[in-house]
Automatic annotation (TrEMBL):
<dbReference type="InterPro" id="IPR036188">
    <property type="entry name" value="FAD/NAD-bd_sf"/>
</dbReference>
<comment type="pathway">
    <text>Carbohydrate metabolism; tricarboxylic acid cycle; oxaloacetate from (S)-malate (quinone route): step 1/1.</text>
</comment>
<dbReference type="GO" id="GO:0006099">
    <property type="term" value="P:tricarboxylic acid cycle"/>
</dbReference>
<keyword id="KW-0274">FAD</keyword>
<comment type="similarity">
    <text>Belongs to the MQO family.</text>
</comment>
<protein>
    <recommendedName>
        <fullName>Probable malate:quinone oxidoreductase</fullName>
        <ecNumber>1.1.5.4</ecNumber>
    </recommendedName>
</protein>
<keyword id="KW-0816">Tricarboxylic acid cycle</keyword>
<dbReference type="GO" id="GO:0047545">
    <property type="term" value="F:(S)-2-hydroxyglutarate dehydrogenase activity"/>
</dbReference>
<keyword id="KW-0285">Flavoprotein</keyword>
<dbReference type="InterPro" id="IPR006231">
    <property type="entry name" value="MQO"/>
</dbReference>
<keyword id="KW-0560">Oxidoreductase</keyword>
<dbReference type="GO" id="GO:0008924">
    <property type="term" value="F:L-malate dehydrogenase (quinone) activity"/>
</dbReference>
<dbReference type="Pfam" id="PF06039">
    <property type="entry name" value="Mqo"/>
</dbReference>
Amino acid sequence: MSGMQKKTDVILIGAGVMSATLGSLLKELAPEWEIKVFEKLANAGEESTNEWNNAGTGHAALCELNYTSEKADGSIDIRKAVNINEQFQLSRQFWSFLVSSNLIRNPQDFIKPIPHMSLVTGDENVSFLKKRFKALSDVPLFQGMEFSDDPEKLKEWIPLIMEGRTLNEPIAATKVDSGTDVNFGALTRMLFDHLKSKNVEIYYKHKIKDIKRTSDGSWEVKVQNLDNGKIEYHTAKFVFIGGGGGSLPLLQRTGIPESKHIGGFPVSGLFMVCKNPAVVAQHHAKVYGKAKIGAPPMSVPHLDTRYIGNQKALLFGPFAGFSPKFLKTGSNLDLICSVKPNNLCTMLAAGAKEMALTKYLIQQVMLSNEKRLEELREFIPNAKIEDWEIVVAGQRVQVIKDTEAGKGALQFGTEVVSAADGSVAALLGASPGASTAVNVMLKVLEKCFPQHMKEWEPKIKEMIPSYGVSLAENPELFQEIHASTTQTLGLGQKEPLHR
Ligand SMILES: Cc1cc2nc3c(=O)[nH]c(=O)nc-3n(C[C@H](O)[C@H](O)[C@H](O)COP(=O)(O)OP(=O)(O)OC[C@H]3O[C@@H](n4cnc5c(N)ncnc54)[C@H](O)[C@@H]3O)c2cc1C
């Protein structure tokens, strides 16, 4: 232990959307607690949370077909879609609370309304979409969803996608106007500005090198100041590891039993981006297709209108790929260094099971720009290569763990891993991601501070009125909350499509 220890109540590692959300919740629930944040980069929200590193979809299962599956009897299982939508409603409520309390301002700088659409071709897929539409239409959370298999209607909804299309097979789409585009980078920067104004100490260019338990049960973090190379030590009663892809190695440093037998598999991503105003003006939606057979769920192709800064752009992708780095700014040694004696068997089992995924990712890495253009043309038949540039997206580290299904199962969701006494917690995985940050951070609070939850509940309910309540089962409460969050977040105004 160091003699230069600096004590605090809470340490948040990483300045992404997850730490920003947890810090903002804690500042409301326990304003007297001292919080310190350590981030290795020069600014907040620069890794996966950055607006160019993710697709900015407010995931509410309005358009993502992988959240609804077809059961053996042909009916559609919508439980996951309902669950994800409920989670997004928690985020909307917390963001609205922050705006209406003047803790953050100008919601239009981080969230904009944009129709969310699903688009499929072929008899089987059209029949699936129709059944999905019928199943979701019965749930109030999906109100306003429209279905069409009429090419004339689709030309109105998605002219850029329909222009030049050969209609030799059935085509259909659903559309929900209440979808959103979220600039998670902008939101995160706003949240850190707010935290700074509440005396949270934020240290940029400070990298956490180690985490150790102290004799009184607190945690000591070893921090390197990247400007001068000096090492500092800070202790806290509670540490949240919100290092994104960098969380797994830090969790492993804690040595807690819960950190064992867990591995990570990095998946990189590329997007194609179009900034040509003449093309951008012809599309106004996030349009999600169906994943190709063998493709992992995070590589569902989609064509999105994005609002970044004051500019509107189109984003197509993601093209998945393999890189051994756990962060975009990580090291090529990340994957190999994460293999420990306790997770070797888990990792090997996953390697043997996931050959198809590995093959898929390698094929994706090898894709030429011409091949990527071919995939883009499945969405925009008349796409021109000169209108599109490639941007490298963030890294996603998928969790590998032993489950009832067997050793080394690859997980596509997020996992909160915490010590039995709740003194340290890490967030692993990246899906559905930033959209559900509020729900995930509420789970962190429930796991790590059970002794405070009763005292905190009234404040949580003031900030997030549907906390602990199913909105799907309380349509009136949903209507009320949806209307008020739509107003506070300025999501009521529709932007017309210019052609
Ligand atoms: C291609 C792609 C598309 C996506 N699309 C969507 C989408 O449409 N909608 C959605 O909701 N989500 C999406 N996501 C997921 C979403 O981006 C992530 O879930 C979210 O940004 C994760 O936030 P975070 O705070 O956990 O991690 P990050 O934003 O990665 O932040 C972690 C921070 O920790 C810092 N850090 C790491 N290690 C250390 C260390 N040792 N010391 C100090 N600092 C450290 C990093 O520098 C980084 O700033 C997407 C992700 C990807 C990659």
